[in-house]
Every structure is written in structure tokens, then in C-alpha cells.
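Renewal narrative, Specific Aim 1. Our central claim is that a sequence can be written position by position from structural information alone. The example that follows is taken directly from our test logs and has not been curated for this report. It begins with the C-alpha cells describing the chain, in the order in which they were read.
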């Protein structure tokens, strides 16, 4: 496979990894992936992003179709994750004069990736430009797509956007590198990529996309998957659709999610939900073991308040509740508030463990938590109602 001309003086010099089946430990890649790097041949020569370590021979040979690595002036580092930064040390070994540009938040990341104080690195921000002589690069900060370090780069004269992981897909084309209109497999791969990698950062994705869409764009050249020169704004516009907050209710939405073996935690959950329903809120009560994962993710994402109830089994939270809690880092949770409760026999750690987990992922949790031993008594149910009213007040606090 050789390099691919993307626009005048701009070449794809990335690599294909068609046999990859899992990316970053837990993202399935049924169609492999690509690590895209772009060579811009102005009077000054620049690379936009590097590739994963292990693919250096293919990468260097594509660059050398156009120039010696020693002749490259600049490397733009849109993001420092190793699938894009893995080959930077090799580039620097061949060309120690190479000057790196990255976002300001990426500076400490890059220093820890390279561990070499002699490397020239400059931090840039939105609106900063780099003159390549006849060609110009303009930068846009795009934090949390999906790391704090991310930025987009724009080749002004050719109207090419390099959004790194944004609008990307894990898809390795059999031939060529361009998106084919109507390719439903790539459409799905782009959605899956968003859903697995970007969805927790939906508000950040939306902000960066709205900003980038103000530019004229002829080519969208992401860091994974096909380059889109036929419908360049296709996946940018899709991101606006995908990041739209799906309101499931006009009122504040509270989910009361419980696991229950013998109905005791369920009884507490029902009392909490019934108490809340008397207020001006919308309450969705569900059994985590009987609700499909996609439905749970949508509910967790849409909710303002999250109330989790679980019994304690062998000093632990039961598995269906763990699986539900572990969905939280896969969606956007900013601004949500939570509370925990559960029935127990003798040790009763589950509500406290859930509370610690929620706090560890930066969700504010109502205290005190609620515990009731074995079958909830009338007194326990009154306590559950007080707990529910307390949580409603907590939800109103700024
Ligand atoms: Fe493709 Fe976040 O690296």
C-alpha cells in the first residue's frame, strides 16, 4: 500500500491494521482500523500525527515516497495517545531537529511520552497559526475528544480538517482511503466509535463540532478510518445528532434502579419511588437484572438523579448492579446527583460501596445512605420516605 494524495501537496502516509479485533482493551474492531498520518509539503514540511509503534516500516516508507524524514520541519501532535504518538520517538531519532506543536494541555503528556528534555515542543491554542510557506495550519482546541490534550488542525488553503479521533471510525478499507457515500458499514463504525469512545464526553464533542462546523471544509481527515472528501461534514453533523441531549421528560428525571433477591430492597425502592412521585418529578423505577443494557444506558444518561439500591452478597454488590454502575463511565454524567440504599442481612456494605464508586467517578452523592435489615419494617419504610424527600432537596441544591 502506498501513500494517497488527499489534496494538493497533502498525502495520507498512515498505516492500515486490518486484522485488529480489539482496540484499547475493550472496543471491538470487527473491521480493523487505520492509524492516519498526513504529510503536508509546503515550503516547510509538516506531518499531522504519527502512527502506532510497530507500524514504523510501513509509515516511514510512505513518507519517503515524498521526502526524507530528516527534511520534515514540524510534527503536529493533535493527541498523545500511543496509537498516534508511538512512532514519535523514532521520527525524533531520525530527525532531532523536528519541532513539535501540540495543545497546551498536551505539553505535560508529551513530555511524559518522550522523556527527552531536548525535544522542541510548542503549545498552541485556538486561532494560532503556523505558516508553512504557501500553506497555513490553524489550530482549534478540542479538549476531551476524548483526552484533555486533543486539538483539531485545519489546513486553511485546502480547507482540510484534521480532527484526530473526532468523526473517526475503526474501519480499514480494502483499497483506497476515501469514504464511499452510502457505505452503511462505515456509517455504523462511526456511530460505534462515537458510542464507545466519545459518548462520555458528549457536551465537549458538541462544542468542538459546532465550532469546527463554522469553517469551510472540503475534506475531513480523521486519525482512524476513511477520509471523507465526498461528504466532509457528514459525521460532524452526525455528532450534532448523537450529542443532542435526549430529554425523556419535561420534568426532572430520577431513576430508581434496584437489584433484589427476595423483594426487600425492591420494597424500599418502591417506597422511595412512590414518595418522589408525589413531587414535581418524573420517576423511573426499574430492576437492573431485568432491563436491557441499551435501555439502562439511555435512562442513566437522561436522568438528573440516580438512586441505586442493592443488597449485600458475600461482602459485595451483586453483579447486575455492578454491571449497571459500570455503564455510568460510558455515558455523559456531568451534573448528575446520586443516592444509594439497600436491604441487608448482617454486613450491609453494598450501599457504602456504591457510594464510594459514584464519588470516585465524580458524581455528587446524597448522605446519609439508607440501609434496612432484612424485611423493611414500617419504621424502615418511613425512613425510606424521608431519604427520598432528602434526595429531592439535594437535587435542587446548586
Ligand atoms: Fe486514536 Fe485516542 O487515540
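The sequence written for that structure reads:
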Amino acid at each position: 500500500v502506498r501513500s494517497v494524495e488527499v489534496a494538493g501537496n497533502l498525502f495520507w502516509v498512515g498505516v492500515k491494521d486490518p486484522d485488529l479485533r480489539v482496540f484499547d482493551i475493550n472496543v471491538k474492531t470487527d473491521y480493523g482500523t487505520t492509524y492516519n498520518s498526513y504529510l503536508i509539503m509546503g515550503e516547510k514540511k509538516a506531518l499531522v500525527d504519527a502512527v502506532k509503534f510497530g507500524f514504523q516500516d510501513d509509515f516511514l516508507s510512505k513518507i519517503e515516497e515524498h521526502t526524507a524524514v530528516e527534511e520534515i520541519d514540524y510534527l503536529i501532535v493533535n493527541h498523545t495517545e500511543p496509537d498516534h504518538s508511538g512512532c514519535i520517538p523514532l521520527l525524533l531519532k531520525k530527525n532531532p531537529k523536528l519541532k513539535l506543536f501540540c495543545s497546551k494541555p498536551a505539553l505535560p503528556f508529551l513530555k511524559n511520552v518522550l522523556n527527552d528534555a531536548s525535544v522542541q515542543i510548542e503549545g498552541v491554542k485556538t486561532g494560532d497559526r503556523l505558516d508553512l510557506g504557501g500553506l497555513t495550519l490553524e489550530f482549534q482546541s478540542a479538549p476531551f475528544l476524548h483526552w484533555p490534550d486533543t486539538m483539531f488542525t485545519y489546513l486553511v488553503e485546502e480547507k482540510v480538517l484534521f480532527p484526530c479521533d473526532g468523526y473517526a471510525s475503526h474501519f480499514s478499507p480494502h483499497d483506497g482511503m476515501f469514504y464511499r457515500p452510502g457505505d452503511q458499514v462505515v456509517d455504523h463504525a462511526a456511530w460505534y466509535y462515537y458510542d464507545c469512545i466519545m459518548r462520555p464526553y458528549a457536551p465537549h464533542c458538541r462544542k468542538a463540532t459546532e465550532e469546527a462546523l463554522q469553517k469551510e471544509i472540503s475534506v475531513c481527515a480523521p486519525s482512524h478510518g476513511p477520509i471523507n472528501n465526498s461528504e466532509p461534514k457528514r459525521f460532524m453533523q452526525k455528532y450534532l445528532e448523537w450529542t443532542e441531549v435526549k430529554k425523556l421528560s419535561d420534568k426532572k428525571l430520577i431513576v430508581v434502579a434496584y437489584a433484589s433477591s427476595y423483594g426487600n430492597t425492591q420494597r424500599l425502592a418502591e417506597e422511595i419511588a412512590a414518595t418522589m412521585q408525589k413531587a414535581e418529578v418524573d420517576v423511573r423505577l426499574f430492576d437492573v437484572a431485568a432491563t436491557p443494557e441499551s435501555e439502562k444506558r439511555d435512562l442513566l444518561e437522561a436522568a438528573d438523579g440516580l438512586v441505586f439500591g442493592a443488597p449485600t452478597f458475600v461482602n459485595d454488590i451483586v453483579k447486575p448492579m455492578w454491571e449497571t454502575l459500570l455503564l455510568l463511565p460510558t455515558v455523559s454524567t456531568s451534573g448528575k446527583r446520586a443516592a444509594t440504599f439497600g436491604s441487608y442481612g448482617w454486613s450491609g456494605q453494598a450501599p457504602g460501596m456504591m457510594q464510594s464508586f459514584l464519588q470516585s467517578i465524580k458524581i455528587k452523592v446524597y448522605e446519609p445512605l439508607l440501609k434496612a435489615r432484612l424485611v423493611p419494617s414500617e419504621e424502615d419504610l418511613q425512613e425510606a420516605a424521608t431519604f427520598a424527600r432528602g434526595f429531592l432537596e439535594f437535587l435542587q441544591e446548586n
